[in-house]
Amino acid sequence: MPAGPVNALDEAFAYAGRLGAEAVVDVGGARQVAHPIRLGATPPSYRFAPPELGEHTDDGFRADEGPDA
């Protein structure tokens, strides 16, 4: 069974920084957690900023109504 310390968020980001890992990225003006997997030939890309609060709410409700609505 793997075992290790349980860090608070600030401790986890500080630890990632000490390891040289980029833990936070800025995407469209929004800071978010970076993808944890790094592959040399196919690094992660961040193309879109996260949606604003409620931006896709109506889309979700329409999808729930089904094709006959």
H/E series: HEEH
Output the radius of gyration.
18 Å
Strand order of the largest sheet: 1-2
Q: Counting H and I runs of at least 4 residues, what is the number of helices?
A: 2
The percentage of residues in β strands lies in: 5-15%
Unreliable sequence segments: none
Short account of what is shown:
By secondary structure, the chain is α+β, with helices and mostly antiparallel strands. It has helices at residues 9-18, 57-65, and strands at residues 24-27, 30-33. The longest helix is centred in the N-terminal third of the chain and has 10 residues, at 9-18.
Kindly list the characteristics that best describe this protein.
two-stranded antiparallel sheet; 69 residues; alpha+beta; elongated; 28% helix; 2 strands; 2 helices
What does this structure look like?
By secondary structure, the chain is of the alpha+beta class. It is built from two helices and two strands; from the N terminus they run αββα. It has a two-stranded antiparallel ribbon with strand order 1-2. The longest helix is centred in the N-terminal third of the chain and has 10 residues, at 9-18. The radius of gyration is 18 Å and the shape is elongated. The N and C termini lie far apart (51 Å). The model has no long low-confidence stretch (mean pLDDT 84).
